[in-house]
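C-alpha cells in:
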C-alpha cells in the first residue's frame, strides 16, 4: 500500500511539474502575431521568450488594422489571471521561437482569424480550421475585410522595407 501511495504521488508530482513547462504569462504584445512570454514561475526577464505565433500573419502595427489586431491579442492574453500555454515548434527566420499560443484555453491564431484580424498564413500553414475561420471572416467582411482589397502583411513589409 505504501509503495502504491509513493508511486501515485511521484507520478502526480511529475505530471504537475511537467504541466508548468509550457505555461507562461504574456508580458508584452509586439503586434497581432508576436508576444513576449515569461515562464509562469520566473521572477525576472532572464528566461523570457519572444514567440512568433504560428498559422497566421497579422497586420503590422503601422498598417491598417495593425493596432486593432494587437489590442485583440492583448485582451485575450494579457492580465493577472490569464495563463498562456505555448507549444514551441522551432525558430523562424528572425530567430524568434515559433509556435502555437493558447490563452486561457483559447487558440490565439484561431481567435484572430475568426475576427478578421489576421490572415491565415497559407505559405507556412495547412491548418484547415484556421483557413476556414479566415475565409468565413472574409465572407462576413469582419475586421480588415471591411476593406475591399486589404494589403497582406507580407506585401506591406516588402513595400515598406526601406523605411526606418
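Residues out:
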Amino acid at each position: 500500500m505504501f509503495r502504491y501511495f509513493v508511486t501515485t504521488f511521484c507520478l502526480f508530482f511529475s505530471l504537475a511539474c511537467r504541466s508548468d513547462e509550457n505555461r507562461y504569462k504574456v508580458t508584452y504584445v509586439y503586434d497581432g502575431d508576436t508576444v513576449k512570454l515569461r515562464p509562469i514561475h520566473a521572477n525576472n526577464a532572464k528566461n523570457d521568450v519572444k514567440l512568433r505565433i504560428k498559422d497566421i500573419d497579422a497586420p503590422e502595427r503601422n498598417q491598417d488594422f495593425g493596432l486593432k489586431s494587437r489590442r485583440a491579442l492583448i485582451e485575450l492574453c494579457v492580465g493577472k489571471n490569464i495563463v498562456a500555454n505555448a507549444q514551441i515548434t522551432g525558430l523562424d527566420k528572425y530567430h524568434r521561437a515559433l509556435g502555437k499560443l493558447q490563452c486561457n484555453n483559447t487558440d490565439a491564431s484561431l481567435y484572430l482569424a475568426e475576427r478578421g484580424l489576421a490572415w491565415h498564413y497559407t505559405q507556412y500553414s495547412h491548418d484547415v480550421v484556421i483557413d476556414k475561420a479566415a475565409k468565413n471572416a472574409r465572407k462576413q467582411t469582419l475586421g480588415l475585410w471591411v476593406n475591399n482589397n486589404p494589403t497582406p502583411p507580407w506585401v506591406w513589409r516588402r513595400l515598406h522595407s526601406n523605411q526606418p
